């Protein structure tokens, strides 16, 4: 649902807008979602869909909100899930999306730390070359024979 589906409105967005931009008044959102405006108000009160608000308090729905309204309707009518169950599903999916984003963020941090560690190791290895003392390239064989004391 939220965060996973891309909505394709079939038209371009205004400059600076995307599928999360609140732009539809409640009557248009009701028409686009196939629901009654009063149903949208109820869903808002229940916390199923939280549209944006104008400074005067009017609701403004985004394309993502409309897709979510359609999903709520589908779960209710086709799957027989009650509104409390739908709210729980939405909350869990939002939590999963947040956790996926956190995992991605942490994976990027680990990758950056790995690169930094490799660079630090390379710098340390490069510094060894400056500290090495030249050694003559002679080969010698030394045989050691300890003195054995006879008893």
CATH class of the domain at 24-81: Mainly Alpha
Shape: elongated
Distance between the termini: 92 Å
* CATH topology annotation of the domain at 24-81: Multidrug-efflux Transporter Regulator, Chain: A, Domain 2
**pLDDT averaged residue by residue:** 87
Give the radius of gyration. 33 Å
Going by CATH, the architecture of the domain at 24-81 would be Orthogonal Bundle
Number of strands: 2
Spell out the helices and strands N to C.
HHEEHH
- Beta fraction of the residues? under 5%
Written description of the protein model:
There is one protein chain. By secondary structure, this protein is mostly helical. Helices cover 54% and strands 3% of the residues. It has a domain at 24-81: Multidrug-efflux Transporter Regulator, Chain: A, Domain 2 (Orthogonal Bundle). It has four helices and two strands. A hairpin with a 5-residue loop joins strand 1 and strand 2. The radius of gyration is 33 Å and the shape is elongated. It starts with 25 loop residues before the first helix and ends in a 20-residue tail after the last helix. Mean pLDDT is 87; it is low at 2-6.
């Amino acid at each position: 649902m939220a965060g996973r589906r891309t909505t394709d409105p079939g038209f371009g967005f205004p400059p600076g807008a995307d599928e999360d931009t609140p732009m539809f008044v409640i009557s248009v959102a009701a028409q686009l979602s196939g629901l009654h405006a009063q149903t949208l108000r109820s869903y808002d009160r229940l916390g199923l869909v939280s549209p944006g608000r104008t400074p005067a308090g009017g609701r403004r729905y985004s394309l993502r909100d409309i897709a979510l309204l359609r999903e709520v309707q589908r779960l209710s009518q086709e799957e027989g899930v009650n509104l409390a169950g739908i709210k729980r599903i939405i909350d869990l999916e939002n939590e999963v999306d947040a956790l996926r984003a956190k995992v991605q963020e942490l994976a990027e941090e680990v990758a950056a730390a790995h690169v930094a560690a490799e660079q630090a190791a390379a710098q340390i290895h490069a510094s060894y070359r400056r500290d090495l003392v030249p050694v003559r390239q002679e080969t010698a064989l030394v045989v050691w024979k300890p003195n054995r004391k006879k008893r």
